[in-house]
């Protein structure tokens, strides 16, 4: 069967960082394609370069060499503000530690990506409420995120990632700070979003338990992909 | 990002650190209040002084005096010539003569002013007793003279006054000084005036005493804009002119310096407040590096970051300025009230020494907007430089 065109193509991407006595290559010539409805698990120990790869895929960082294309366009070569716009429209990002605008309520924090895209407050709130309801955390809407438990915070963080209805969800160690129950809930949501909502998921983890969770898994070590699972 | 959302986030950020915001706003308010109070005092004094020296129509009036009565006397001819100058609406003469009044055996030196009813009305002469009508054989006296002429509590109106009048040669018809003695006039009224003794008589009366020239003319022009040309033409005729605008301009110049000095004191207070605001904005921004980084990850545009930081600065600046303006005006009004009570307790009239012109208040608000934007410039620069990657790595 003919493979569809990749949504994201990482082509020969390397990234170096200057240090006191020279440079360190965080990524070394990475090639990776992400196809529609993919659930990618990128596994590896701390410092192996997986977060750097994620930052380059989402356009937060630029590669030193190589390029990233998004739906066929040279995404990594766009100007910073253009990359931000593409990211805001197409990517939903969750981090290990949820970041908040502390002065805003849960509802406003979830609505924030839509505010940034220039949507009006009324429509934004309606959408934010719907996403919180979908994740069964609507009752938290009036609270401040810092008042919530880590598990609740990650649920709200996921709601924020989903509020723009992006096609790709990028999760950087989303269960790193969670207990097993909360972790299961989070992974369950990601699985549902992939299988039922048809979204591409990129999960970065150092937890070996998640190897083989998605459609494809990659192991990274010292900036290189050293192992790839068979496609499910 | 919609402006309403930007203001909402800015307000929430300020509310989150309510004590810090309150202190910063208070600092800004005190600085602004100091400036408003001091400038209001300065404007009030200036207005008071200008009102003292200039009546309602004063800026339409010119006083004409001879450079030399021998060469260019102020006489009927001069009056006719000046009245024909374009822009002159009215002209009234006045002559001052030395007189000695005789009361109950007492001789009182006074100034006898020969003039017209119109001339007196221009000076808002207030008649406190009798009638204020001038005639060739009836005079008005001021209160100082009345007190010397009459017994305590008795009116002089209706009584006779005997005058010896000296007409100097430059005012006399044939250039020879003359003295008119034992001239009797009816006292028709008393005018409010505590200055040295003065008597007012119609010009016809002073002419009959031998004074055919005048000491001065008062010219009224149709429009304020006519003043320069009319002054110029009168000057070309050999007369000198005095204009209240010159005095007011000098007063304004003095007060401009006074305002600058007082404004500088206020500006020092404001500068301290601005430093406080700068400090608050910077600290607030440093605390929210993660939030700025997060918004950048979520795709916020640089212009929206500029608006977000500026909105906070503007809100603090406007809240501080509006409170400062209210505080400054309130301080002025309270001080005014206290000063008035003192003045009244010492028998003085109630005058206001504070004045807050609307343009001053609008200027203060505009200045606050500008100061806020300028103060926000450096924090904005920092915010724009926030690199999400650096913040992520640090965190």
Q: Would you give an account of this structure?
A:
The complex is a heterodimer of chains A (about 230) and B (about 400). Chain A is of the alpha/beta class and about 230 residues long. Chain A has one domain (about 10-230): P-loop containing nucleotide triphosphate hydrolases (Rossmann fold, 3-Layer(aba) Sandwich), CATH 3.40.50.300. Chain A has six helices and ten strands; from the N terminus they run βββαββαβαααβαβββ. Chain A has helices at about 50-55, 80-90, 105-115, 120-135, 150-160, 180-195; strands spanning about 10-20, 20-35, 40-45, 65-70, 75, 90-95, 170, 200-205, 215-220, 225-230. In chain A, helix 3 (about 105-115) crosses helix 4 and helix 3 runs parallel beside helix 5 (about 150-160). Chain A is globular. Chain B is α+β, with helices and mostly antiparallel strands and about 400 residues long. Chain B has two domains: about 5-55 and about 250-395, no CATH class; about 70-235, no CATH class. Helix content of chain B is about 55%, strand content about 20%. Chain B contains twelve helices and ten strands. Chain B has helices spanning about 5-15, 20-55, 75-85, 115-120, 145-150, 205-210, 225-235, 245-285, 290-295, 300-345, 360-385, 390-395, and strands at about 60-65, 90-100, 105-115, 125-130, 140, 160-165, 180-190, 200, 215-220, 240-245. A six-stranded mixed barrel of chain B has the order 2-3-8-5-7-6. Chain B is elongated, with a radius of gyration of 34 Å. The chains are: A alpha/beta (about 230), B alpha+beta (about 400).
Topology of this structure?
The complex is a heterodimer of chains A (232) and B (395).
Chain A: E1 8-19, E2 22-34, E3 39-43, H1 50-57, E4 65-70, E5 73-74, H2 80-90, E6 91-94, H3 106-116, H4 121-134, H5 150-162, E7 168-172, H6 180-195, E8 200-205, E9 216-221, E10 224-228
Parallel strand pairs in A: 3-8, 3-9, 6-7, 7-8
Antiparallel strand pairs in A: 1-2, 1-4, 4-5, 9-10
Helix pairs in contact in A: 3-4, 3-5
Chain B: H1 3-16, H2 18-53, E1 61-66, H3 76-83, E2 88-102, E3 107-115, H4 117-122, E4 127-130, E5 138-142, H5 143-149, E6 160-167, E7 178-191, E8 198-202, H6 203-208, E9 216-221, H7 227-236, E10 239-243, H8 244-287, H9 289-297, H10 302-345, H11 358-385, H12 388-394
Parallel strand pairs in B: 3-8, 5-7
Antiparallel strand pairs in B: 1-9, 1-10, 2-3, 2-6, 2-9, 4-7, 5-8, 6-7
Helix pairs in contact in B: 1-10, 2-8, 2-10, 8-11, 9-12, 10-11
């Amino acid at each position: 069967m003919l493979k569809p065109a990749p949504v994201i193509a990482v082509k020969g991407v390397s990234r170096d960082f200057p240090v006191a006595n020279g440079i360190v290559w965080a990524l070394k010539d990475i090639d990776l394609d992400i196809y529609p409805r993919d659930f990618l698990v990128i596994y590896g120990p701390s410092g192996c370069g997986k977060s750097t790869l994620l930052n380059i895929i989402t356009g937060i960082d630029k590669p030193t060499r190589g390029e990233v294309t998004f739906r066929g366009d040279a995404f990594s070569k766009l100007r910073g503000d253009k990359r931000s716009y593409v990211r805001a429209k197409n990517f939903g990002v969750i981090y290990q530690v949820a970041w908040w605008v502390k002065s805003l309520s849960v509802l406003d924090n979830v609505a924030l990506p839509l505010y940034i895209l220039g949507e009006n407050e009324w429509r934004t709130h309606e959408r934010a409420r719907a996403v919180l309801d979908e994740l069964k955390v609507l009752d938290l809407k009036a609270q401040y995120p810092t008042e919530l438990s880590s598990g609740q915070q990650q649920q709200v963080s996921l709601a924020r990632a989903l509020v723009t209805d992006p096609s790709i969800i990028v999760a950087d160690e989303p269960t790193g700070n969670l207990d097993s129950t909360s972790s299961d809930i989070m992974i369950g949501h990601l699985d549902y979003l992939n299988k039922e909502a048809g979204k591409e998921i990129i999960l970065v983890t150092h937890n070996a338990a998640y190897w083989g969770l998605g459609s494809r898994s990659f192991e990274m070590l010292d900036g290189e992909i050293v192992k790839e699972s068979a496609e499910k | 990002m919609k402006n309403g959302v930007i203001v909402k986030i800015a307000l929430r950020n300020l509310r989150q650190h309510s004590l810090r915001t309150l202190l910063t706003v208070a600092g800004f308010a005190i600085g602004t209040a100091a400036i408003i109070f001091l400038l209001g005092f300065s404007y009030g004094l200036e207005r008071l002084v200008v009102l003292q020296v200039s009546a309602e129509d004063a800026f339409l009036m010119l006083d004409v005096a001879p450079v030399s009565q021998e060469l260019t006397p102020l006489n009927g001819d001069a009056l006719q010539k000046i009245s024909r100058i374009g822009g002159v609406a009215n002209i009234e003469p006045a002559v001052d003569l030395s007189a000695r009044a005789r009361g109950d055996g007492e001789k009182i030196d006074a100034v006898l002013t020969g003039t017209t009813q119109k001339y007196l009305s221009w000076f808002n002469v207030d008649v406190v007793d009798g009638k204020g009508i001038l005639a060739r054989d009836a005079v008005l006296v001021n209160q100082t003279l009345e007190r010397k002429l009459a017994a305590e509590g008795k009116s002089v109106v209706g009584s006779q006054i005997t005058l010896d009048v000296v007409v100097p040669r430059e005012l006399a018809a044939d250039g020879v000084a003359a003295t008119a003695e034992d001239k009797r006039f009816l006292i028709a009224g008393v005018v409010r005036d505590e200055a040295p003794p003065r008597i007012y008589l119609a010009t016809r009366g002073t002419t009959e005493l031998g004074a055919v020239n005048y000491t001065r003319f008062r010219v009224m022009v149709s429009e304020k804009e006519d003043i320069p040309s009319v002054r110029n033409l009168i000057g070309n005729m050999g007369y000198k002119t005095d204009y209240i605008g010159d005095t007011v301009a000098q007063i304004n110049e003095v007060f401009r310096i006074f305002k600058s000095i007082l404004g500088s004191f206020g500006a020092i207070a404001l500068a301290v407040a601005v430093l406080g605001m700068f400090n608050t904005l910077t600290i607030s921004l440093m605390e929210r590096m993660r939030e700025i980084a997060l918004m950048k990850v979520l795709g916020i545009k640089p212009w929206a970051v500029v608006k977000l930081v500026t909105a906070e600065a503007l809100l603090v600046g406007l809240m501080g300025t509006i409170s400062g303006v209210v505080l400054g005006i309130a301080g002025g009004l309270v001080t005014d009230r206290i000063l008035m009570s003192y003045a009244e307790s010492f028998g003085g009239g109630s005058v206001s020494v504070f004045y807050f012109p609307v343009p001053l208040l609008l200027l203060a608000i505009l200045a606050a907007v500008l100061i806020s934007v300028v103060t926000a410039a450096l924090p904005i620069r920092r915010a724009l430089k926030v690199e999400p990657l650096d913040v992520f790595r640090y965190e």
